[in-house]
Please model this.
Amino acid sequence: MFNGRVLIITGAGVSAESGIPTFRGKDGYWRNLDPTKLATPKAFARDPNLVWDWYCERRQRIRKAQPNPAHRAIANLGLQADEFLLVTQNVDDLHLRAGLPAEKIVQIHGDIFMTRCSRCEFRRYEHEQEHDDGSLPKCQECGEYMRPGVVWFGEQLDAAKIEIVENFMRGGDCDLVIVAGTSALFGYVIDWALRARGQAGQLIEVNPEETSLSQFATKSFLEPAGIALPRLVNGLLSNVSP
Ligand code: APR
Model:
């Protein structure tokens, strides 16, 4: 058991060792296109087929991928900590498939397997099958194009998901905050990490590279998540200080 309150924030780096490219790494480019320019409302408006092709390929890759030791370590800590929340920027389902219960996960940038209408509230899950007849999916309720259920650049986060995070924050300061595999470019990531640790909690960063969060970390492991997280969690669960 881990007697304490834990917040973990993850990003694409945690799934990198499962073979899913990060956004800003070299491998992130697809057909020579920059993902940060594909994951936008503008790109979808200009060329929805291209954007869907990219998401369909990513879905296939994620379906074939397996959780790695970092996902499993996080799930293990999540099951053993008194109070726990994972906020992930990842739209894949690898944290869930590693065994972390859905109610302990907030996918703040959405879920790649959700397809939702770009106009109305209609949505459906596509864990298994894909629309693969080459045509763009259209909403069965209103006829508008369907789009991936993820948060694109320039879009607002889902207020209900923010509320889950804020509600966890209101429950008290965390003894431990771990931020792993994210370039921490978004202000809310840094804000949540710093607020959650309060005055006395530990803030541990796991990332082979330094980020803008590194200066605030009480400890940094400049290593791949699949190496550092299992060691860190095993230590915590056997009461060895990190
Ligand atoms: N272990 C840990 N960290 C790693 C690993 C690894 N094996 N490999 C790479 N990293 C780190 C990189 O050093 C980088 O800091 O993971 C980070 C990945 O950064 P990004 O590609 O920017 O991904 P992320 O921080 O999740 O991006 C945030 O931006 O593109 C949008 O919505 C998208 O959710 C995404 C968000």
Remarks:
- The pocket of adenosine-5-diphosphoribose is lined by residues 11-13, 16-17, 22-25, 36, 89, 109, 180-183, 206-209, 211, 224-225 (CB under 6 Å).
- The CA atoms of residues 173 and 199 lie 8 Å apart.
- The chain has a mean pLDDT of 93.
- The two ends are 15 Å apart (CA to CA).
